[in-house]
Structures are given as structure tokens and as C-alpha cells.
Amino acid sequence: MVQVSRYQLILMLIWTVLGTGIVTMPGTIAQFTLRDAWVAAFGLLLGAVMCSLVSLAHVRLFPGRSLTQAAIDVLGPVLGRMFGIWYLAYGFITMATIGREMSAFIGISVLPNTPDFLLSAIAFAVSMYLAYLGIEVVARVNEFIVPLAAVVSPVLFLLAARLFDASPFQPLLGDPAGAAWHAAVVPAFAYGLEFSIALQWVPALRSPRTLPWDILIAGAISAFVLSALVTLTVGVLGDPARYLNYPVLELVRAIRQGKFVERLDTLYVMGVAITLVLKLAALQLAVGEAVKDVSRSPERTWIPIPVALLGWSLSNYLFRNVFDVTNFILRDVPGYFLLTVVLLPGALYALRTAQMVRTKRPRRLQNT
Amino acid sequence: MSLEQDILARRAAEVAKQIAKRLEPCPDLRVQPWSTQRDTGVAVWLEGLVDADKLQEALLALRDSGGPRGRREIPRPGVATEEVGTLSAAVRAVLDGCAVIVRDGASSAEAWRLDRVPARSVDRSENEPTLHGPQEAFIESLSVNLAMVRKRLKSPRLKIETFTIGETSPCQMAILYEEGVVKSDLLREVRRRIAQIRVDYVADINEVREFINDPRFSVFPTTEETERPDRVVAGLMEGRVAMITDGSPTCLMVPVTFAMNLSSPEDYYMHYSLALPLRLLRHLMFWSSVLLPALYVALLTYNQDLLPTPLLVSVAAQHSGIPFPTVIEALGMMVAFEALREAGTRLPRAVGQSVSIVGTLVIGDAAVRAGLVSPGMVIIVSATGVASFTLPALGLVQAARLLQFPFVMAAGLFGLYGILMLGIALLGRMASLRSFGVPYLAPVAPNITRDMKDVIIRAPWWMMQGRPRQFEPVERDRVPRHTAGKWRRGRRWRP
Amino acid sequence: MTKWVTVSKRQRAITAALLCAALATGCDYNDIDHLYIATGMGVDRQEGHVALSMDLVQPGGAGNPATGGSASTQGNAPDWIVSAAAPTFEDAMGALQAKLSHSLYLQHNAIVLFSKGALRDFTMIADALERNRQLRRSQLWVVTPTSAEEVLRGATGQSEPVSLVIRDLVDEASRREACLASDELHVVKALLRPSGVAPLAVVGEGPDGSPEIEGLAYLRRDGRVDVVDRARLLDNAWWLGRTFDVRQTVAWSEGGRQAFVGVHWLRTSTRLAVDGPRVHPTVRVVWRGTGEVERWQANEKMSAESFAGLEESICKDVKHRLAEALDHARAVDMDAFGLANACAEHGMNLSEGDWKRIRVVYDIEAHIVHGQLASTTPFANDAKGGGD
Amino acid sequence: MTSVWAVLWAVLAALVDFRRWVPGSWREWLAWFLLTSLAIGVAIAADLHWWPKLGPLHLLDLAFSGPSAWLYGGQGVLQEE
């Protein structure tokens, strides 16, 4: 019996959101505001709250069922599959986005001469292997990474904090509220809503009832970490944070401690690569579950390969360059994700409630 | 063989002839007729396996007593007896080191266990040496080994079940466990897997290990092998199952986790504060014995930016003029080092040590002087070797030796990125392994906080009142709670 | 148990291919001895061309115990300089690479040495440097009044690559005057802020050819440079932040007679605070210093009272120095001390040139901790010395 | 008897376990075929540099840039680099 504990779930969610979060979010936030960047990072919490509400409804109405299973339950095999396919498209596009972000990031920062598709192919292959091994293994790898991250990231934080300078934040909350909101949209709707992939993992959870609470905890921790990171980035880099693609990478590049610690950015890139692979694996698990439900298959071992293959080729095809990715995330993702993981499931649950009320009412009458 | 042939003949001489025919040619078979006032018969045994003096004594006693009439009437001072009813059983008994006593006119014979199987005496542990603590090690005799365990664990709940495995050459095998502590599912699983073993003969417990292993091809040891009775007893008290086969000085214990492979019995015999740095060191050394050459290759060929400038300049200076690419250089050196290491173990002990030392020094130095290998590479490869020597579990050493090669290749392909990706895949693989149901990376992943006090740190004994939860022991506490109450609160004896 | 499979030819081929593939190397494979490691870069301007000089490490050089005597063709120096000129920065890099037999490796570049002339095209070069991911963000940007190439070439033959020597020089100096830490991050950050002026360390060729710190240069975003020599370095450094371990000679008038007291500042700090109305703000310069007396040439006995008197005259002196530095900055039209920044942090965006009209008040407090050593030496009273 | 190649192959098969990667029922085959053919088609399209004017990304953009802009606060405030 595959079961994921609460601790593992929270860790998986945190890595899932922060995986790309630490790469791109500081950059997208800094495009809108510098002074209020630390506030904007808490937009993530907004997304977490929305996901938590959705999952609250989900675990009440469909204990032990994944989102796609729930859709098939409510809408029937045909319409339910349609929803499943819509959800699959969402999963694949997200996967492609992450894959493209990752290959671009690694290509730019450590392996400039290696073709991007090769870099993403390796990452997809490894994450496919993890997804193949199952959610339990992915959860354990997440757990294993934690002590390492717990040692390495504070060191990077402290080393960078020497260069910190509070002047970019003064006067406090000096930017108009609109700018802060614009900056918060992407963390809230593009990254915060990614917490919802936990709905696909529900069948494997040890205690699905606590899922909303776990999402909130994970959201709070990620928002806090992200805010600290954004604060540090803006404080150290100052104005240049506006035009740099990967501000955190530049932050780490700036670290110099004596003659021995001079360039740590490769280490940071490697750390990010780990989290990205874990994120890819987590998404593939969710998508694989959807494929399994849509094709009504009892097995899941055949799924990872085609899923990873499609994710990989889409990541090469959909986004021709990095700007496509940034544009997509900034322009389309907020609305797209809001519809797919909040509004549509919301409608689903409303429908279910209506169904239940309709079926329960006669029964109650009989009872009384 | 048909049933008819398997029946013992009524005439003892005929039986002896039949046995001899089965074993022929067999110069060490001895047949000696005996007689009492009432009976006559022969004794059949293999010379060398049977204690001849004892046998003659027993035969003498037999003659005085009037011969075997029934089992109970024969006085056999100090001799264990078994009845054998068939010819093949009689043959097996002879091969097993018994003297078979056949009586004329009887339908069954008796096997007298008078074995004097050649065996060495109990000695110090060679493969798992420690400075402190008990020193003795198992030998190749099952009964002696069991006695050594019994000697340490005087618990009535210590249970020993025996099995016979091996089609051609049957071999006694025992499983040991502490009843009331061990999880019953674990025990059932062990029995089930042992029942499935199909093998002609058992040379060493390794055959058992490979048959009952969880993953078929994993390089990681998912069973613990030890030659130390003290370690076995400690394992039994944690709710694990031990297996000993006759003829092997190694005991197998299941389940085992990755972290346990990095703990040495020494950790428990020293002051607990010393265990922390040593265990940290071993964890570090395991990973460096896997990754060090790969990291060196990656740093030299892809990620030079990670090296501090002075170090980079010095490494570049060392490397200038070396005709090979770094990957080839690394692989070549690693192969050479493995060859030296193998030579060191295979050669007679007196020569072996000098070969490995002289080989590393002389050949390494010559290679550096000739400009074939850079000094840095020699340092790295030998540091890798030294790192692997710090690991207490031999199985893990072999795993590290194997794994360093793919990692170097990955480093040659994609630098640090390649190492990292292979590393994650390896981690996934390790996380998916189980040893008799226990996740291999426990208690780190999945996280079992209570058990963390014996992973990197070794908590003082008075804090380890509970048995490791990862093995799901039936009795969770080593000492019943009411007696342990005051210790549990962390109070200790004060004068 | 184990079910053996019979293996077809195709599977055999796949296995063999996988085994062989494991021995290949990737696209970014770049062995360490096929690199020319650059530790420093000099930027000059030659008749509209950008001239780049690279300080390349020579691994076989004298500084390396590893190779010992095996000297290469360029002699025994730890480094050698290659120069090339081209109309743009990128072309110059290309031209440089064309002269080198291995690829140029920039990731260990420690300094960029600009000549004063090169800074006129500063924006173009800075953009190229800022966008080049191979270069470190922590590399130092340093100015030389003469030619960068000469500074680099003048010093080869030491035991360490010259650019590392320069880096250590600047590092050491920036431990005393924090404003000299002119790494790329700080310079770019300063240039992008409202004041738009960044301080850079100035390095020149000393009398024996080895580099030395010559002072401080202010660089404005448009490429204008103003060099402050070593004599006025302290005044400016006090404006620009912390100093540690600096020495000052204070003229102390005592009953009509002049005396000189040597003060050793253990640490000083300066910050700007903006007060007053939004229309006419006042910038308060808060200067705090902790020091000890190193030379005591006054006739008066050392006492708490005389220390109080001393602190007063120190305040006057510091204020004078700061005011002078500000006057100079105003004269050359460079908001070197970040008055506009301070106002912006206070929520006021000044228009061009407004910073000159801001009222500046000085809030200076010196704290002399002790000076026993200075007064107890037998030669204390006889020692002659003057202020500078 | 087993050959060396069979052993190597078995090791590989145990490590990557590809025999379990094959779909079982016709539904699984259908889903497998759809996903894989889509993946191959897309990969070929990328290799041939065939990006239609109205690609999937543009469709998404058409559909969702409006709602996203609404989330941003009503008007098209999106800055592009």
C-alpha cells in the first residue's frame, strides 16, 4: 500500500512550488516592484489559500479520489474524460514550461554549448525514472534532500547577507499598491495554484483529510522562504534586479568570501536542478494519475514514458525561447490556472453538492 | 532410485556392501563388524569425519551391554543417535560424519553422531576488527556458532529454527530470532524465502543471501553480513532475524538499512560522543568514495569556475603536459588502483601488503614522473580508496567501487550536471529499495524521528530505551516501562 | 526465481551500444589544460578602438611549485599579457581569442582595469561586462590614470599574476576604506541609483613598476571621471561609509600655540539622514568615530579634559574635511556622496542638479578612547612632526 | 544455459525494468499511442522549425490573456521586456 505521510506531502509541495519559484519568481516580481517585492512574495499565500479551499471541498466530497476520478464520478465517463483531457493539457503545458525554464536556466548558467533539448531530455529521463518508481519514492527523495538543503541554503543566505543593504526598500511600501499587486499576481496565480496538483495525489495520501491544512502549511513556509529570498535578492542586487533574468543566480554570483569562496553559482544551479527534477517528477505523477484515470487502466507502470516523452517534446516545441516562457507565465498562466484548478473543480464540487442534495432529500423524507 | 533398492537389507554385511557401492570409489570408508552375545552387525563410517577413539569406546560399551535390541536399551555414553530406515538415509548419515551401526536382521540402522569434523578454533575477528569490545568471531561450524550466540543471549525467548538446503549436499541452516520482539510478518517472510531456495550445494551464506535478497540486481547490500556474535545478538534484540549456515563463518541479518551499514560495532563500545564525528566521517567517506573521482573530473573539465583561482592555477600546472583527457586518465587510474587492491587481497598476506603499498607508491610516482598521470589524479584516486576503506560494511565498499565508474562517465558527459542527475536517479533507486519490507533509507527517508538517534549520532545507552521503530518490533521497549521510568525522564544515577 | 531471457541480436546490440556510449564525452567538455585562464583584463582606448589586454596565467611559470623547473616559451613569469584592439568590446574579445591557441577562460577574472580614457565609452563596455555571464560579478573594477596595458605589463615577473596582486591590493585597502571595494556589483548598483556616481579604486604604476593604490575615482553614469588623490582619500572615504584603522593628524591649538596630535581611528561610520520639509530638505551627515591617540605632542597633560578639548578640535577638523570634499564634489558636478540617494530613500525625487542646493549639516561625534602609550614613551615630548 | 549477454540484459532489465513499461489493455495501448504519436509529431515539428502562425501558445494567449489582464487589475498593464 503506497502511502505518503503528511510530512512528506508538505515537503513535496514546498519543493514543487519553490522549484521554479526560486529561479524565476524573484525576477518576475522585480519587474513590477522593488520596494514592495517582499510583500509581493506573499501572493503565494493567496494561491495556497485558494488551493486549500478547493482541496477542502475535494476531500469532503471525494475522500480518497483524485481530481480526475472525481470528475468522472460526477460528470460521467464522457464529460468526465473531457475534463480529464483538459486537465492533462494543463499538466503537459505546465510540465513543458518547467522543462523549458530548466533547460534554459542550466544552458545559460553552466552548460552553454550543450543543446537545450539534450539538457531537458536528461532531466525528463531522470524525473521519469522517479515517477516510474512511484510517489512513495519521490516523497522519500524529497525527504532525503531536506537535510542537505537545510545545511546548504542557510550558508548561501548568510554569505549573501553580508552584501545586504536596506536602501532599495526605503521608503517602506513606497511603491503604489497597484505595482505590488501586479507583482503578486504571478506568485499567487501561476505558482501558488500549483499546490493543487496535490489533488491528484489524494489516493496515495495517508491522511487525505488534512490535505487543506497541509497545503496551507506548505504555502506559508514557501511564501516565507520566497519572501526572504526576494528580500535578500533585492537588498543585495538593488536596481539591477530589474533587468536580470535570474536575479538569485546573480545574487549567488556576487558572493565572495576571501580567496577561497569565489564562485558558488554553479552549486546553486545544481541545487536548483535537483528541485526542478523533483518538481518534474511530482508533476509527472499527477499527470500520470490523470492518464491512468482517463484510460481507465489499473496499471501505472506504462504511463511515465509516454508522459515524459510528450512533456519533453512539448517543452522544446511550445516555447521557442525564454521570452516565450516569461510572456506565457506573465500573460496567460494566471487566468489559465485559475480556470483549470480553481473554477472548474469548484464547479465540479458545486455540481456534486447539488447531486447529493437531490439524492439525499428523498432519503431523508423516507427516514423521517 | 526405486523404493525397493532403498530398503535396508536384513543382513548387515549386505548393507555395508550397498553403502560402499553407492560411495565407490571410496578409500576412506571403513566397515568394521561387531558382535555381542546376542547380535552381530557392522559399523560403517568415513574415516576422518568420525572420532575413531570414541567410536571404539562406544563399540566396546556395546559389546559389554549385550547389543542393541531397541533404542532405549543401548547404553551409549555421550553419543547422540538417530534411527535411519532407508539406504539413502544411511548413506547421508555416513556422509554427514556419523557412524552407522547396522544389526543383522533389523529393518533399520542407527546413526551414531561421533563426528570430529575438522574445524578451526574460535579466533579474533579479522574482517571486522575493533579496538574495544568482544573480539571473537564465528567459525565454520554451525553448532559452535549457535553456542556462541547462546552464550551471549541467555534468553529463553531466543528461538532457533533449522532448515536443510542444498539438493546434492544438504546443509544445515538456522534462523535465529528473539520471540516476542521480532515482527511475525518478518519471520514468515524469511521462512517463505528460505523455502524457495533451490541450490545443489551451499558453499557460503552468500548463496542464501543472493537467493533471499529483495532486489535482484542491486549493488547495495540489503542484508547485513557479520562474523561477530556480539553484533548478531545486538541485532536480535532489535527485532531482526539472523541466519547461519553450517560451514560459513558469516552470519546474515535482515532487515538492514543503509545507515546501519555505516555503523561499526565499535560505535557502541566507545563513549557515545566519539560516535558522532566518526559516523559523520563515514557518511562523508561513503559519498566521497563514490563521487570523488567524478567530482574531480567534472571540476577539471566542465566546472572549473568552482575551484578557487590559486587552486585552479596549481591544478592546471599539474595537468599541463599530460597526454590524456582527464576522463581517460581518471578511468585508467581507477582501474589500475582496483587492480592493485585486488592484488593486495589475493596475494599471500606477507606479500600482499607490500604489493599494495609499493605498487601505489612506486607505480604512482613513476607514472607521475613519466608525465602520464597528474599528481592530483593520483591523490584523488588513492583518497577514494582510503575513503572506501573506512566503511565498516564490506558490501558497501563493493557498491562504492562499482558506482564510481558510472559517475566518472557521467561527469565526462555533462560535468556536475551529469553527476547530479545520475545521483538523483541513484537516490531514487536507493529510496525504492526495501530490505524485508523496511525502506532502505529509513530512518531518514521515510523520516522516523525516534530512530534518528542511532544514525548520525549514537545516543547514550540510557537514552536508547526503545528498540528501533523501523523494524516494527512487537515489544517496543528494551526494558519494561515501569522499571525504566526514572531513566526515561533522563535522570541518571547519582551518588 | 530468476527467469533468464534469451537474448536476441538486437538486444545484444543495444546493450553493447549502451556500454560504448558510456565512454563518450559531452559538448561542453573543456579540459583544464586547454584553457587560458584569465585573471585580469585591462581596457584601454586607442583612437576610437577598444584595446583589451588579458592577464593570462601561465601554469608552467615560476609561481607554481608543481612543475618546478619546466619553463615554457614565454619565460618564467607566472603570467603573460596578450593585447588586441578592435572597434567594439566584443570584436576585441574575438581578436584576442584569435591570438590564442586555447580557449580563453574568463570565469576566474578577478579585476577589470580601465584606463581613464576607456571610461569615456564606459556604458558600452559596462554593458558588455554586465551581460557576460562568464565573468564574475565579484570582480573588481579599477581605474588607472595611465594605460591599463602598461600597468599590467609593468609588473609581470612577480611571483603571482599581476591582476591577483592588484586585487589583493584593493582588497587590503578596502579593509581600511570600505568605499574602495569597487566590485562590479557595487559599482553597477551605485550607478543605477539616483545619484548615478560610483567610487572606484585607482591603481597606478609605482616607481618600480609594481602596482599601487593611488586614490579614488568617481565615475558618473555618462562616463565622466574625477580622480581623488591619496591626500584627499580619507576625506572622501569618510563620506562614503565606514573606515577602519585609518590615521589622521589633527592640528590642535592650545593657548595660541599649535600642536599636532596623531589620531588612530579604530572605526568610523558615516550615514546620511534627511530631515526637514519635502521642499527644502536638510541632509544631516552623521559621523561617528572611535579612536585612540597615537602621537601626543601637546604640552598639556593627558586627561579627560584634554581629551574633551581634543575631541572638539577633531570635530572641527572632520567637519572641515567633509565640507571640503563636498565642495569639490559640487565643483566637479558629481553627487559622489549620494545626497540624491538619501532623498530618494526618504521619498523625495530630486531633479537634475538639485542636490547641490541641499543644505548639509554635520553631526560629528568623535570618541577618543585612550592614549597612554603615546604619552609614556620617553621621546614623546621631543618628537618633532608637523601636520599635513 | 545463460550467456553473458543474457546476464547483462537481465541486469539492465532489472535496473530499468522496461518489460513492465508495455501497456496491457487496448485502452492503454490507445492512450499510449496517442501520447507517443503526439510527442513524436511535436518533436518532428520542432525539428523542422514548423511553427504555425496560430500555434497552441497563441490560442492559449487569445483565450487567457484577457482574464489574466483582469486579474492584474483591469487594464493591460503587462510590461514586456
From TrEMBL, chain A:
<protein>
    <submittedName>
        <fullName>GerAB/ArcD/ProY family transporter</fullName>
    </submittedName>
</protein>
<feature type="transmembrane region" description="Helical">
    <location>
        <begin position="215"/>
        <end position="237"/>
    </location>
</feature>
<keyword id="KW-1133">Transmembrane helix</keyword>
<feature type="transmembrane region" description="Helical">
    <location>
        <begin position="303"/>
        <end position="323"/>
    </location>
</feature>
<feature type="transmembrane region" description="Helical">
    <location>
        <begin position="144"/>
        <end position="164"/>
    </location>
</feature>
<feature type="transmembrane region" description="Helical">
    <location>
        <begin position="335"/>
        <end position="354"/>
    </location>
</feature>
<dbReference type="InterPro" id="IPR004761">
    <property type="entry name" value="Spore_GerAB"/>
</dbReference>
<feature type="transmembrane region" description="Helical">
    <location>
        <begin position="7"/>
        <end position="25"/>
    </location>
</feature>
<keyword id="KW-0812">Transmembrane</keyword>
<keyword id="KW-0813">Transport</keyword>
<feature type="transmembrane region" description="Helical">
    <location>
        <begin position="37"/>
        <end position="57"/>
    </location>
</feature>
<keyword id="KW-0309">Germination</keyword>
From TrEMBL, chain B:
<dbReference type="Pfam" id="PF03323">
    <property type="entry name" value="GerA"/>
</dbReference>
<feature type="transmembrane region" description="Helical">
    <location>
        <begin position="405"/>
        <end position="427"/>
    </location>
</feature>
<keyword id="KW-0812">Transmembrane</keyword>
<keyword id="KW-0472">Membrane</keyword>
<keyword id="KW-1133">Transmembrane helix</keyword>
<comment type="similarity">
    <text>Belongs to the GerABKA family.</text>
</comment>
<dbReference type="InterPro" id="IPR004995">
    <property type="entry name" value="Spore_Ger"/>
</dbReference>
<protein>
    <submittedName>
        <fullName>Spore germination protein</fullName>
    </submittedName>
</protein>
<dbReference type="InterPro" id="IPR050768">
    <property type="entry name" value="UPF0353/GerABKA_families"/>
</dbReference>
<feature type="transmembrane region" description="Helical">
    <location>
        <begin position="284"/>
        <end position="302"/>
    </location>
</feature>
<feature type="transmembrane region" description="Helical">
    <location>
        <begin position="378"/>
        <end position="399"/>
    </location>
</feature>
TrEMBL record, chain C:
<protein>
    <recommendedName>
        <fullName>Spore germination protein N-terminal domain-containing protein</fullName>
    </recommendedName>
</protein>
<dbReference type="InterPro" id="IPR057336">
    <property type="entry name" value="GerAC_N"/>
</dbReference>
<keyword id="KW-0732">Signal</keyword>
<dbReference type="Pfam" id="PF25198">
    <property type="entry name" value="Spore_GerAC_N"/>
</dbReference>
<feature type="signal peptide">
    <location>
        <begin position="1"/>
        <end position="26"/>
    </location>
</feature>
<feature type="domain" description="Spore germination protein N-terminal">
    <location>
        <begin position="28"/>
        <end position="194"/>
    </location>
</feature>
<dbReference type="InterPro" id="IPR008844">
    <property type="entry name" value="Spore_GerAC-like"/>
</dbReference>
From TrEMBL, chain D:
<feature type="transmembrane region" description="Helical">
    <location>
        <begin position="29"/>
        <end position="50"/>
    </location>
</feature>
<keyword id="KW-0472">Membrane</keyword>
<protein>
    <submittedName>
        <fullName>Uncharacterized protein</fullName>
    </submittedName>
</protein>
<keyword id="KW-1133">Transmembrane helix</keyword>
<keyword id="KW-0812">Transmembrane</keyword>
